[in-house]
Amino acid sequence: MRKLIALCLLFVPVLSWAAIDTYEFKDEATRERFKQLTFELRCPKCQNQNLQDSNSPIAADLRNEVYKMLTDGSDNDEIVDFMVARYGDFVLYKPPVNKMTYVLWYGPFVLVAVGIVVMLVISRKRKKVSKEGVDLEKQLSEDESQRLKNILDGDRND
Amino acid sequence: MRRLILFIPLAIFLGIGVFLFRGLQLDPTELPSALLNKPFPQFELTSLYEEDKLLTEKALIGEPALVNVWATWCPSCKQEHAQLNRIKAEGYKVIGINYKDDRLKAKIWLEKYLDPYAVNVFDPKGSLGLDLGVYGAPETYVIDQQGVIRYKHVGVVDEKVWAQLKQILDNLQQGKQVALQ
């Protein structure tokens, strides 16, 4: 019996990770849209949770509002606009592309581009150096080449 | 020139350091209000004191005022209540929105701690709160004489915050006088 209770308790945290409401939907598609919307909209009070996840009263209110709007036949854009009009872009987990968020959206690509340029410059410089090295050897006269060879061979014989 | 290149990592480090250090002082719970410079949302709710008296947004318009979202279940509201009373004593208009609260409890509260509100809107379901983008009481808005929202403060109004709000209210008041002349 004890073991059974312990086993049951084991499942409690798993069950309570998401806020539980009972909403009835007219069809499966609406349920899916509700799920998707509450997943993508952020709870304004509890900063790192979406509406689906949060137990705070404000999140419950907003879930309720999403549900109401869905049953009234609003489309997803209307619901998202409704939330943004009240809570700002903050409620979107996927921020819109505007001049406030250009750095956020395009910054990583700029950094990659800068990295590539730096890499190209460095590798080109290396190539130049190694080419110059080869050229130097060619600049030696016959006599000098012979001496160089003797020195190198002499080293080997030591 | 070569030497200077060696300083690039240091410069990058300093740049990131300054950026992150600034981030430490920012309060992430403060969100920019989406309603700034927009008219006060429309509503039709009862007055806290008179159950059968319907109030609309027109009841708030007329002069620059503070709109304070409060509730008896909110501990910080209690904390700022004395300050609101002082603001009223200074002669400024404070409008209350009783947010998701119990009418009787709210009335008892105002009797006990005095009532700084010129008008008190009873919003039991938080519908006006939703339209205002309230995410945690107390919140205080500054509206101008046309009822346009000019400023939003989330959290307790203490003396420091009031100094700031007062400045905004005074500016609005002056603007009104200029407009009248």
From TrEMBL, chain A:
Signal peptide span: 1-18
CDD domains assigned: CcmH_N
A Pfam family recorded for this sequence: CcmH
Record's GO cellular component terms: plasma membrane
GO molecular function: metal ion binding
Annotated transmembrane regions: 103-122
Keywords: Cytochrome c-type biogenesis, Heme, Iron, Membrane, Metal-binding, Signal, Transmembrane, Transmembrane helix
Biological processes per GO annotation: cytochrome complex assembly
Limits of the CcmH/CycL/Ccl2/NrfF N-terminal domain: 7-152
Protein name: Cytochrome c-type biogenesis protein
Lineage: superkingdom: Bacteria
Annotated family: Belongs to the CcmH/CycL/Ccl2/NrfF family.
Function: Possible subunit of a heme lyase.
Automatic annotation (TrEMBL), chain B:
Taxonomy, superkingdom: Bacteria
GO molecular function terms attached to this record: disulfide oxidoreductase activity
Membrane topology according to the record: Single-pass membrane protein
Biological process (GO), any one: cytochrome complex assembly
Compartments reported by the entry: Cell inner membrane
Signal peptide: none
InterPro entries recorded: Periplasmic_diS_OxRdtase_DsbE, Redoxin, Thioredoxin-like_sf, Thioredoxin_CS, Thioredoxin_domain, Thioredoxin_ResA/DsbE_sf
CDD domains in the cross-refs: TlpA_like_DsbE (cd03010)
Residue ranges of every copy of the Thioredoxin domain listed in the record: 34-174
Keywords (A to Z) from UniProt: Cytochrome c-type biogenesis, Disulfide bond, Redox-active center
Cellular component GO terms, alphabetical: outer membrane-bounded periplasmic space; plasma membrane
Family (UniProt): Belongs to the thioredoxin family. DsbE subfamily.
Name of the protein described by the UniProt record: Cytochrome C biogenesis protein CcmG
